[in-house]
Amino acid sequence: MYKKIAMLILLVSMSFAQEKIGVVFSEKIRLEFEEFKDVEQQLQLELQGIQKEYEAMAVELDSMVQEYEKQSLMMSEELKKAKEQDIIDMNNSMQSYQLSKVGPDGELTRKQAQLEYELVEKFKSAVNSVAISGGYDLIIDGSLASLYTKPTHDLTDDVLYELRKASDNSAK
Asked: How far is CA 39 from CA 3, 115, 133, 138, 156, in A?
């Protein structure tokens, strides 16, 4: 709430100073810029692979438990303890695998952060390019606080154009 009030005060004070202001709707860019979709799809595919591997481990653990339960009455104490330890090790291995892949410092989490950072940098670069070429003093994200934006202040399509142009240039 305080951010919105501060933004409103900032906008009102800047309008008196004849500043040139633009608005970009980042949510629209997230939905329409192909690289955002590609990154989301890539991460989703990797997550599905991780889930399949985890599920295979879970099936293996389940079969180990079932085998233990069926044969535990006929096992020696040594064999029982060894099988119990195998089950515990497998459970620990599954937890470790899950943490290493999707935990706070997991591979997928780090990869997601890196890819998002790269996209945000491209987004910032495109916004800066539009701001400089258009002589804007301030560009705000309308997805966060805008209830109404005069269409002439909306620079979202210009930023999308810059992003696509930069993407096409880097692909060549």
From this structure: 30, 7, 29, 29, 20
Q: In this predicted model, what pLDDT tens digit does every residue of 123-150 receive, in sequence order? A: 999 999 999 999 999 999 988 877 788 8
CA pair distance 155, 161, nearest whole angstrom: 10
CA distances from 101 to 53, 59, 93 (A): 11, 19, 12
Q: SS3 for 18?
A: coil
For the chain, the domains span 2-171
Residues 6 or more apart in contact with residue 38 via CB below 8 angstroms: none
Between the alpha carbon of residue 88 and those of residues 36, 62, 67, the distances in Å are: 41, 12, 14
Please classify residue 62 by burial: count the beta carbons closer than 10 Å to its beta carbon, then call 0-12 exposed, 13-18 middle and 19+ buried.
exposed
Q: Whole-prediction pTM value? A: 0.70
